[in-house]
Structures are given as structure tokens and as C-alpha cells.
Amino acid sequence: MNENTLESVQQCLNQFDVTEEQLQQIQAGILGDMERALGRQAGSSPSVQMLPTYVRSTPRGTEQGDFLVLELGASGATLRVLWVTLTGISGPRKEPVSQEFTIPTEITLGTGQQLFDFAAGCLVQFLDQLQVGSQPIQLGFNFSFPCHQTGLNQSTLISWTKGFRCSGVEGQDVVQLLREAIQRQGAYNIEVVAVVNDTVGAMMSCDPSPQACEVGLVVDTGTNACYMEEVRHVAELKEDRGRICVNVQWGSFGDGGALEPVQTPFDLQLDQESLHPGTQRFEKMVGGLYLGELVRLVLIHLAGQGALFGGVTSPALLTHGSVHVQHVMEIEDPSHGRARAQAMLQELGLTPSAQDCAQVQRVCGAVSSRAARLCAAALTAVLARVRSNPERSPLGVSVATGGRLYKQHPRFSALLQQTVRLLAPDADVTFVPSEDGGGRGVAVVTAVASRLALQRRQLEETLAPFRLHSQQLKAVQAQMRESMVRGLRGESSSIRMLPTYVCAMPDGTERGDFLALDLGGTNFRVLWVKVGSRSEEGIKIINRVFSLPESVTQGTGQQLFDHIVDCIVDFQKENNLSGQTLPLSFTFSFPCKQLGLDQGILLNWTKGFKASDCEGQDVVSLLRAAIRRRQGVELNVVAIVNDTVGTMMSCGYEDPHCEVGLIVGTGTNACYMEELGNVCAVPGDRGRMCINMEWGAFGDDGLALQEFYTPFDLSVDQASINPGKQRYEKLISGMYLGEIVRQVLLHLTHLRVLFGGQEFPSLQTKDIIKTKFLSEIESDLERWQVRAILEKLDLQADCEDALLVREVCQAVSRRAAQLCGAGVAAVVEKIRENRGLDRLSVTVGVDGTLYKLHPHFSEQVKDAVRELAPQCCVRFLLSEDGSGKGAALVSAVACRLAGAAGP
Ligand code: BG6
Ligand code: GLC
Ligand code: GLC
């Protein structure tokens, strides 16, 4: 061979040299792109994709079971089906059974349906031979293309790469497409449980001992890597704890131009003639699908220069795709390479000389060496990220390797490893070949996914009884209505329908100063309410919240009422009211049988109160007795008012259509204006009177709500201070929802659906979950914030746990809102019918921490009312200053009606 020839070949191949400095630039470029893609920085358009895979841990080694694996897209136009048996830690290793199928070109370039039907057909053929019978089969789908995953079994194809371009698949969930194709076959009971990139399969295939692989590298027809990343760095996920495997998709590095300094004219030509021009520029310099083609283009060029084959080409050499990576690998074989080169060239219709064969070997070597070195640069970028993790293993990093080019090429792996050591001398990397071509790893992910799917089913089963449908709500509404009528008639009913002796709404002419007490909600308050002209001063309130220790709410009645009087006296002193005898209204949020405005016999305590010697007594008398015991104090108790009534009156001052009062706080209850003629307990049949329904007790007679009581509700009821009582309230109000949630969480922990089965002591603590917790956790938070809320309760949760807890809260609070809505619907419908109207416009005055603070509760109540009482137009008006103000208005109205203005 003459000098010139050698020179021309050398010159041409020099273009494939990549200097160490260039490799370092590529490494830095990829690392920068990885970081930008993770951080989702606005305005940056990184060329690697960094796709979260939802694989959250490396294998534990405990995974067990039989799995079917379908591999599509890793090795060119072949499809592989495997039957993998995982035997856990102790079981003997079992070899998988596998079969390969060639996908015809008309399918790789055909329609999506053809492709998936072909795949499903291969599954059936494989299973027929295996004779697995009709057992349910769990399938893991190894789909080696860039996908946007939203879970382990949901994956939207972003774009085809390599040699595939089937229509109608990009933008679709490939799991769903595969499921549909399997259904079309109809032969086997196959559940597609997980979808995995080939790099993830490789990473998950490796033995967890002595240490698990945290990186998966594939060099096959395409090239790519995945690795375990701190989830807090993956901006898209908005989580703060744990790790997740990220599919780098480095094949597209350079699509923005970063590879220009190392690209040769051959690379540009190859790209232009490829199926997806302008994309996957890095992959086109490394992946096996392209190496043969690069070699072919170089050979044509050299032949054209007269440097090879005596200047002659052949039609076969000029045909796209006639040189394969398999040829390249064989030609580079140290012992038989020369002969293989000759054979290939002859097959291409050329008559090569011995020198030609040697030069062709050099061409192959240059192309594949560049590939190995570029791939090493990319891998060191990934290693740099893994090594930046502060919790990384002291044993260095293990990289699982897979793909035919990496495994079968005589020098590729050695050259890659050598370059990694050059570029990252202290990386301490171990390369571990993946097993079964990654099939085992896919099976491991499938095992995890099927465990998660089981957990999801268990969660759904647990929450199913909380999800009420319209018919059930309609039944509640009807039963509520019936109980209202019976209660009004004095017949046996769980709802007491108590007359309040409030017969008129404020009209704005009320004036005067009043004292008010507000007992029975979250806060005990004393108020000084100044009622002025509605148009000018309006209502002014000065109030103070006093604490009510449990020793007082659950001690003796005398202690309770003495404490109340002490608080009033303190308040009077602070506000220079001592010595004045202002009319006093008492908001007392418990069921009382009233015989007049200022007389109320406590029928029974509810919520958290249990003071002795009060039930059956007139509360006003108990208060007056306490005033007498505290000598030198004069108070004039004018009215006792339920909080619902106070709320209605307070809102009625703003809106004359307000004829319903609703409380959804610690407890729940409603009142409304009923026709006096319907109220048997009070004589007279003209005008209206406000009725305190005491609906919290709805269902206490066992005639309603039975079907809604889940075992969790029963436990909450049993552990309460009044078992069997206030059954409707216990499904709805703030005092109980947290407890119901806690019971459900305990159950889910027991099933190991939550917290990995770990039973935290705090979850055993009664009342640890407050209404505030539900409101917080259900608001629009990022995952990490949800998790932080759990942490405040000493529940060490990961973000997945946090989301499950949120689902539980949502189910429990939604049921509560819907049941409450059914009650409101019954009330407004009754008012409408009382008045013989086709349509009723009415305002409901509302108060209570749950209704006010929960992010969705109020909307859900409204939705239910709209659906259940379509002939009523219901406005919900929030009460601003609590029901103490309304209670003062009750006294003010009474004073006005008695013809005596307040002092
Ligand atoms: C308040 C009333 O506004 O609402 C209380 O003044 C009432 O008397 C309360 O009981 C209901 O809400 P919670 O959430 O405090 O029980
Ligand atoms: C291509 C695919 C990628 C895959 C790689 C190796 O780059 O886009 O998903 O991992 O090939 O098969
Ligand atoms: C309880 C009380 C009731 C009150 C309600 C809201 O149900 O029995 O009187 O209105 O709580 O506070």
C-alpha cells in the first residue's frame, strides 16, 4: 500500500479523534444539561430529558414470584419475551425462559396498533409454548424509548427514537396501548403492572450485595443511562425525601449544537439520512444502530478518494444500512477480524486486497473507539451527580452495564472503562454486567409495582364505604325530613326539633349595650356587644377568649358555672363595666328544652362536655345561682340561645333572607324558621318560630345512618364520652373527623399499606389529629409540605405515605360534607314546601371551624345541596363574629318587641 493511501486514511480517521479536553467539555456539557433539566429552570432548554421513572429504590433481593417480561426497542428490530422467576433472598436462582422475535420493517414503520398487536401476538405464542394455563400473569414492559411517566404503570411516549416510527403512539400511554392489544388477543389474563426503560432494567438486575448498583448503562442499538437521584433535586416531583431513579435520555445530548466541535461530515450525513433527522445526535455517534452506517459512509468516501478498493464501490456498499454493528464487532475481533473483514466486503460485492481489509479494520476501530470514549464522558457526568450525593455509599459506585455493543464488542467496554478512569480518576467505579439482559430487573420492578397495586386496592377497599352516591344521600335527606316532621309533632324521633322562642329577625331598629357569653365551641368567650343604628355605627364588639380546662368541662356543674361567672367578672373589670347591669345573652351550644327565652333545661351534654349535676337543670338558673354565690355581682340574664340561632340572627342582621342557621365546627347542628302551626309543643298557629333541630342526634334511634357506619366510625363512637349518641354529628363534625382518620390510618398501617407497616406511638394517641390537620393537609400543598405536616405529628412518612394520608382525609371529609349537605337540603326543602313555593330563595347563616377553615368542605356542602334541593336557591353567608353577637341581637329584638329599648 502506498504512502498516500495510508495518509488519506489517516487524515480521514483523524476526524474521529476526540481529545481529552473535548471529552471533558462534553462531560461538563452533559452535567450542566442534567442539572438544568432536573431543576426545570425557566428559559433553559437542556438537551437531556431527566425523566423520573417512579422506581424509588434499588432491589432489596426479597422480591419473589413469576413475571412475564416484554422487551421492545432495546435491540433493534427484535422483541424479546421472558418468563422470570424471582426466588427472594434464600431461594435458588432460576434461569429465565426467553424467546426472541424479529419485528418486520413494515411494523416498525407501520401503525401503533400493528406494533402492539404484533407484541401481544408474540406474548400469546410464547405463553402457549410455556403452557402456563389460565393463572393471572403480571407483566413488566421494558420499553426503551423516552417516555414521560406519571407512575410505575403509566407512561406516555414522548417521541420515537432509533429505528422505530409507528404512527399514533407519540403522546399516548404505551401501557394502555399494550393492554388494549392484549385484550384484543383475549387469550391470557395478563395484567400490565409496570413499564421500565432498558437502563432501569439493567440497574435493577444486579444483585444487591455487596452493594446495589445505582447507575444503569446501556449501549445497544441506542445508548442511555439512568441513576438514583435525590428526589428533592427533581423539581417536577415537588418532593423532599427519598430517592428516585431518573432516566437521563442522554442520546439527545447535542441536539442543541453542543456536539458540533466533534462531529464529522459523516455524522452530519448520517443524521440527515436517518429516520429522525436532527435528533439523538449523541446517540448517533455511540449507538450500535449507527456505527455500521458510519463505517459505510467512511468506506464510500475513501473509495471515492481512491484510497480503498482501487477506487471502486459496489451497489451494496452504496445501499443504506448494508453495514451492521455486528460486522463492526466481528471485524474488530483480534484473531479473526481480518478474515471477517474480507468476507463482509466480498458479501458487499467488492474485491478487497489484504491492505483494504486492514484499513477497514482501522476505520471500524476509529468509529467504535470514539463511541466508547464519548460514552465514557457521558457516564462520568452521571457519576459526578451520584457522587455529589452526601449519603452515598463509602464503597464507591457500582454501574450495571448492558446492551449488545457493550457486552459483545471486543474492546468497547475496556476502552470505556479506561476512559472513565482517565476522566474521573477518583470515582472508584465498579462495572457489573446486568443479568438476563435486564429482564430480571424488569421483573423486580414488576414485583414492586404489583405490591404497590395490591396496596392501592386495599386502600380503595378501605375507603369505598366513605364514597357515597346520590341515592344514598337522597335517602338521608328523606329520612331527615321524616324525622323533622315526627319531632315537630312530638312523636318519637331522634331529632328533637326544640322551640327557641325566637320568633322575629332583627329589623335594624334595635339599640343598646349587651353582654354575651359564648360556651360550647372551640372557644369560651365573653363579649360586650354595642348595637347602634345599622346605617351608622352598626354593631361593635369587644370580646375575650377564656380557657376552659377539661377539669372544668368535665368536673361538677357548680365548678363550671362558678368559673363562667369569674370570667364575666374579670371581663367587666377590664372594660370598666363593673356595677352596670347590662342585659346578658347566653349562647349555650347544647340541646336545651326551652320554655321561654330565658329558660333552658339542658337535656344532655354533647361534644366534649360532661359536667355533673347539670343535665335536667335549667341552665339559666344554674348561672343565676353561681352569680349569687359570687357576692356583689349583678347580672341580668335575658336569653339563652343555641349557637345555631345566634348564627342565624347574626347573619339575619346582614341579610333578611337568612332563615337557617348552620354550625359545622366541634359539633354540628342547624336551626330554621318553622311555621308555628307545625310546632306542636308551642300553642298558636300564626307566625313562625326558630326551631333548634339538634340534628347531631339524627340516627340515634337506629332508624337511619346505620348503613354508613364503618368499623372506624364504630370505634370512634365507642371511645367517645357518649357512645351511641350524636351519631350524625360523629360522621360530620370536627371533633370526630380526625379520630375517624386516625382509625383508618391505623388500619392501613396494619395492612402495611402505610408507613411500611410501622406502628408509630403518636398514631395510638386519641385526638392527636385535629380538624386543623385535615384542613392543612387537604389544601393545595406540594408533596413535601404534606409530608412535613405528618412529621409534626411524629409520623415519619415518605411522600407516598403523605399522599395516601391525604386521600384518607379527603374521603372522610367529603363524606362529612355530603351528609351535611343532605341535612341542609332537607331543611330548605321543608321551608319551601311549608310556604307552597315552586322555588325558594333562602340564606343559610354558617359558622364553625370546619366549615370556615377547611379548603373544600363548604364547596362540597353547596354541591350536595344544589343536587339534592334543585328547587331552592341557597346562599351561604358566613357569620363574622360568632354567635355571641347573634345572641345579643336575640335580647335586643326581645327588648324591642317588649317595647323597652336596651339601656
Ligand atoms: C362560633 C360560635 O362562632 O361557632 C360558637 O360563637 C359555636 O358558639 C362555634 O359553637 C362553632 O364552631 P367551633 O368550631 O368553635 O365549634
Ligand atoms: C434510546 C432510547 C432510550 C433507551 C436507549 C437504549 O436512546 O431513547 O430510552 O434507553 O435508546 O436502548
Ligand atoms: C352540638 C350541640 C348543639 C350545637 C352543636 C354545634 O350538636 O348539641 O346544640 O348547636 O353542637 O355547636
Automatic annotation (TrEMBL):
EC number: 2.7.1.1
Hexokinase N-terminal domain ranges (all copies): 9-206, 459-653
GO cellular component, one term: mitochondrion
Keyword Iron in annotation: no
InterPro entries assigned to the protein according to its UniProt record, in alphabetical order: ATPase_NBD, Hexokinase, Hexokinase_BS, Hexokinase_C, Hexokinase_N
Top-level taxon of origin: Eukaryota
Domain Hexokinase C-terminal residues, every copy: 215-448, 660-893
GO biological process: glucose metabolic process; glycolytic process; intracellular glucose homeostasis
Pathway the protein acts in: Carbohydrate degradation; glycolysis; D-glyceraldehyde 3-phosphate and glycerone phosphate from D-glucose: step 1/4; Carbohydrate metabolism; hexose metabolism
Single GO MF descriptor: fructokinase activity
Reaction(s) catalysed (UniProt annotation): a D-hexose + ATP = a D-hexose 6-phosphate + ADP + H(+); D-fructose + ATP = D-fructose 6-phosphate + ADP + H(+); D-glucose + ATP = D-glucose 6-phosphate + ADP + H(+)
Keywords assigned by UniProt, alphabetized: Allosteric enzyme, ATP-binding, Glycolysis, Kinase, Nucleotide-binding, Repeat, Transferase
SUPFAM superfamilies associated with the record: Actin-like ATPase domain (SSF53067)
Protein function: Catalyzes the phosphorylation of hexose, such as D-glucose and D-fructose, to hexose 6-phosphate (D-glucose 6-phosphate and D-fructose 6-phosphate, respectively). Mediates the initial step of glycolysis by catalyzing phosphorylation of D-glucose to D-glucose 6-phosphate.
Similarity field: Belongs to the hexokinase family.
Name of protein: Hexokinase-3
Organism: Sarcophilus harrisii (Tasmanian devil)
Gene name as annotated: HK3
